[in-house]
Amino acid sequence: MRSHVIGEPAEHHRVIAPDLRGLGASARPTDGYDAGSLAHDAEALLDALGADTASVVGIDAGTPPAFLLAMHRPDRVRRLVVMESLLGGLPGAEDLLAGGPPRWFGFHAEPGLAESVLVGREAAYVDWFLRAGTLGDGVPAALRDAFTHAYTGSEALRRAFAYYRALPTSARQLRRAVGAGRLTVPTLAVGARPVGRALERQLRPVADDLTGHLIEDCGHIIPLHRPRALLALLGPFLAA
Length: 240
What we know:
240 residues, 4 strands, 46% helix
């Protein structure tokens, strides 16, 4: 997902782009897919690589753990960028959720259901999300095939859907975090379609230093759909 946006920042920064727990080439534990555990994973990765601090960029499932890392360990997060996600049930997303969450959330959240239905149909299912997340444009064939390979088979699907099944736990962790303190790290919230400015609205009451930006005519998978627009935001923000 980050293939279009890694090269330019790497000219001036050390760039670490890990697969989240259970995804891609990462280890495949049976649990720990809640945002708090993922934040601990990120901190442990910094330790393993000898990085005392980092600017942290998260999108979608990476946003809640990036936020919790910045909340719990602001000494280790220089700057925070979060994109196209919601922070549990924190206030600010009521308009977006007025009709309920996206229809696939319930399907993915029911233990054992989605993987039993989708084995053998992964390519079509993954391609639908890639097209929807780029407003119909889709992605290059090689990249599409890489996504499909990563999510093929019942075990790979189970790990992907584990993120949805951990959402209630993550929501409780997020509520506790904002109840115990404020987000003091300089933060950039980037929205597109469909999340828009909902994440920014969730962050506004709890963040001391927040910048919000909406990328127009951009789908959910911002780094693939509008990489140049994203880089134009990331460069100045991370260099500040």
